[in-house]
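tool_call predict_complex ligand=S-adenosylmethionine
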Amino acid sequence: MRWYEDEAFWSDFSSTMFSARRGESAARLVESASLLSFPDGARVLDLACGPGLFVVPLARRGDRVTGVDLSPVMLGRAEAACAASGVPARLVRADMLTFVEPASFDVVLNVFTSFGYFDDPRDNARVLRNAHDSLVPGGQLLLDLMGKEVLAGWIGRPQLVELDDGAYVIQRDTILDGWRRLRTDWTLVREEKAREASITCWLYSGAELCAMVEEAGFTDVACFGDFDGAPYDQHASRLVVRGIRP
Ligand SMILES: C[S@@+](CC[C@H](N)C(=O)[O-])C[C@H]1O[C@@H](n2cnc3c(N)ncnc32)[C@H](O)[C@@H]1O
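tool_result ok
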């Protein structure tokens, strides 16, 4: 089994990845961030939507949202979150490697470092081509991940996150293959029991990711340092890349 297919990984580490604080921050971004402002009623595909942190606020403001994820557990949580908020969304269990609905969406979102998971770089390129083909002409792709340059600013510092329930997570990062890939080793300590997991994904600089997005057929490709459209420079907190399907 590949690491991203491990249901238990996403569930066990969900309180650190999908915290209430992250949910609030996603809702604020959807409300106010310029790059997340779409035409009324936009058809939005949230690719690798997880438990719906973006699905819910997007659907609440009237976007017509499809959330796709490989994990039935994550989709179940997204469904429960939509029901609790009384918002409609279509949720589909599918692999981003193969999911394509031709010319069906105005926006494809892929957020919170949900890209670069496949060992074979051609598979990651294929995800971008799928996104391209699922967009209508003029539609936009928005990718948000931890860019190589951003990571370089803080990697090496020990990371310890205390969770609301008293558990804590230790995260250790290791650069592999001359800054091509990153392995992150996580240890979750809860009630004196430790749970370990390792994930390995590709790392992209702004220039590398923009080149991949162009290669997939997008035009007007640009990178930003956050969802407000700040420049991707030494102050950037994320790498956000936008491309338009011609
Ligand atoms: C880091 S989480 C981000 C979730 C969500 N985008 C968010 O902002 O909270 C990555 C998600 O990708 C999903 N995933 C992993 N591999 C996938 C694949 N091959 N196809 C579709 N979803 C996948 C996982 O189940 C998980 O929900």
